[in-house]
Amino acid sequence: MLGIEGKGIEWPEVGKVNPSSSKLNRPSKMTASPKLAAGSFRPEKLGGECSNSTGNGCFKISTRRATLATSKCSVKPWPMSSTSSLAWTTIQYADQKMKQILMDRPGDPASVIRLADGPEPPEPGPHQALVELVASPIHPADLLTIAGMYAASPGPMPKVPGKEGLGRVLRVGELVQHLKPGDLVPVLLANDGVWQERLVLEAEHLVALPPGGDPLQYAMGFANPATAFLLLREVVPLGLGDWVIQNAANSSVGQFLIQLARRQGIRTINIVRREGLADKLHQLGADVVLVDGPELPRRVAEISAGAPIRLAIDAVAGEASARLAACLAPRGTLCNYGMMSGKNVQVSPAALIGAGIVVRGFWLTPALSAMTPAQRAQLFGELIALLASGTIRAAVEATYPFSRVHEALAHAARGERSGKIFLVPH
Questions:
Q1: How far apart are the C-alpha atoms of 136 and 1, rounded to whole Å?
Q2: Parts of the chain with a pLDDT under 70
Q3: DSSP designation for 29
Q4: Any idea what DSSP says for residue 351?
Q5: Which side of the chain, N or C, has fewer Cβ within a 10 Å radius?
Q6: What pLDDT does 263 receive?
Q7: Which fold has domain 236-361?
Q8: Res 155: pLDDT
């Protein structure tokens, strides 16, 4: 997941909003590197160590001196999409406890996760912002963290889980110029801490998102799309018309990868674990959708007419890895970024030795760390534009209030889902 401490980002110049209509001024022709469709930022270089009230690392995606072109306009909550039943309410917090989800130790969510009262965060300091959580997706990384199987150590217990979400600014410190109450901001914490009603964050780590976007898409709009984007760009050089094969194609990362590949002219073979998903994935731009099974390599060879496949993207591991590897051209690359099967990656000696298949892994945190501030700014600038315009999106299946966190986690862990599961405070 995300989390880069001590790194900075320079935001690129972006497009503007038409104040009279609040509609996105979309470019007449999309390019490979679109400008942001809404909101105008003047970038300044970031730096310094991340520190917030929870003691968690925060991925820096903004600048203290950034300014919004439409700052004179009154910011109001926009209409929600049909998938977004989030209620915008004003809550009085004086003398109240806030709700937070706590993880007491790694293990079964039913026994190690609980809803608790926590102290209200302090008033924001001069360079800080008080943010209330709007929604947070339950990622596979969250489930692995709770189970004690995530790549990073879970750290001291008890802790508040949650790595990504969407926040709404309540109050800002006296020296904060680029944010105001009502702004929606992405919340990305390296060491968890998102699943609580309110938290204080350093304002330089926050950026106001363009009005008009779907809040649930914004809430899951950075970790998953960035993973898909970098899997297509950083692992193997790919050109127009090249083939890529991926499993878990109906996952959020899989859906984003289909849409991003389509924009780049890359053809995708998409593997799923059950029938009934092909129509939805074809609508997103999938070229081929197949159900996984022992005959997968033969079926892939027939459909691709023998065209070389140099990249296979694996989120499942176990025997599914071996089947993907068998679909690759000699000296192709199998890139694993998940373990939905709960098993280790399996690849046959014939694939490794005889075909020279390369096996490697991908984790977003070090991938972002290796990028320059300008490269990260370009990446997130492109993603925000695509999310705000609705050009890329992933399916949403259900939202659960904090009070039903155990149901939400159980739902997120089920294999047969059609979209992402979200937690909302109320």
A1: 14
A2: 1-95
A3: S
A4: I
A5: C
A6: 97
A7: Rossmann fold (3.40.50)
A8: 87
Distance of CA 181 to the CA centre of its chain: 24
Return d(Cα 191, Cα 155) in angstroms, integer: 8
The domain locations on the chain are 1-222+384-426, 236-361
- Which of 150, 218, 337, 400 is an active site residue? 150
Two tokens, residue 165: 């979400």
**What's the N-to-C CA distance of the chain in angstroms?**
25
User: pTM score, two decimals?
Assistant: 0.78
Is-contact 67 42, C-beta < 8 A?
Answer: yes
Residue-level pLDDT at 29: 37
Catalytic annotation on 150?
A: yes
1-222+384-426: which CATH topology?
Answer: Quinone Oxidoreductase; Chain A, domain 1 (3.90.180)
pLDDT at 32: 36
Query: Is the bond leading into 237 cis (omega within 30 degrees of zero)?
Result: no
Helix (H, G, I), strand (E, B) or coil at 419: coil
DSSP 8-state assignment for residue 318: B
Report the distance separating Cα 270 and Cα 334, nearest Å: 15
According to DSSP, the residues that pair with 130 across neighbouring strands are: 171, 200
Contact 297, 319 (CB under 8 A): no
- pLDDT tens-place string over residues 83-124: 333 433 334 444 578 999 999 999 999 999 999 999 999 999
